[in-house]
Specification:
Length: 139
Amino acid sequence: MIKLAPGLSIKKSQINGRGCFATRSFERRKKIAEYTGERISDQEAQRRARGRFHLRICDIDGKWSLDGARGGNGTHYINHSCDPNAYMQTLYGHVLFFALRDIKAGEEITIDYDQTLLPDSRRCHCGAKNCRGTINKLS
Ligand SMILES: [Zn+2]
C-alpha cells in the first residue's frame, strides 16, 4: 500500500487509468505535495521508463531521477492534461506540485507533462478544448 500525501486520493480517472484527486481544496499558487520516490540515476530512469505511462519517474536535475512507483505518495498518479490545474517545480533537489488555479475538493489534479520519456507519437486523451493531441509538446 502506498502512503498518500495529505489531501490526495487515488481514483479511477476519465483521462487515463487511475488519477490523483484532491480531497480538499487547494488555493492557487499554494503547494499541493512533494513528489517522492526512490532516487535513481537518469540512466536507470531511462531503462525503467520504457512502457510506463504514468508520471512514475521524475527528473530532478538532469542527473538524478525519482521513481514514484517505489516509495511514492500518490503524486506519481497525477495525469497529464493540456489544460492542467497544477504545475511541477524543482526546488533545491525537491520536486514540488503547486496549484495553477484554485482546485476544489474532488477535482482530478493534472499537470502538463510537456516533455516525457514517452515517444512523441503518444496520443493525449485529456479532453481539454485546447488539447494538442500528443502528450509531449512537439517543437
Ligand atoms: Zn490533451
